[in-house]
Specification:
Length: about 240
Amino acid sequence: MKILTDLHTHTSDGTTHAYSTLLENIAYAKTIGLEAIAMTNHGPNVHDSPSPWHFNAMHIIPPYIDGIHIIKGIEANVFGRHGKLDVPPVRYGVNSIELVIAAVHDGAWEPKNNKDFLEVYKNLANNLQVHIIGHIDRTPYFSSENLDVLLPIFNENNKVLEINGFSFNVCAQDNCRTLIQKAKEYNSKVSVNSDAHFALGIGDFDNIINYMEEINFNFENVINRDYKTLKEYFNF
Ligand SMILES: [Zn+2]
Ligand SMILES: [Zn+2]
């Protein structure tokens, strides 16, 4: 199995902890045969993120550069259990943001107990702005039991679960495996993304794909497996 798009990548715009430009990301994506990447920098309301204008101006970037489709997105931060996001308001009547990944980050807000965890993700499930629930496996109070509650709700609300490369390979290995197992059990739609902060990390899905193959995950549920499927799913 090959996955031909990567919907979670960062660029070095602003004072970010990412080290490649969009053009460098595109060039690398091309060398490894991807069809599309999404640029999803951190929402503006945390330290080390681009300004709101970065997100407002993304419409100036062409949708297709050197053989790669470019999706303009944001990795929005969650503030509080009501699920408030730092997606900048539309400016000049042009909405630049095509894809919203909602993610809990410790620099913004984190749940203080299990009740917060369930409440915030139920609220995100009901938020029409949100396309993808980002790296839930890194949020405090993540558990298999909580996924039993939430995954049916995500399914009802057409939310896609992210299977995140940085979680799988580095910082939440056991949780990410649990997430993949539960996504299989609940037949959830997923998006397999790198979360690359450097061009050479884009499309680095090998370990995740190996694990998914090992447990016979249904790849029909990977909505970003190719650009055609992705475009149809999100109606870009
Ligand atoms: Zn993140
Ligand atoms: Zn990220």
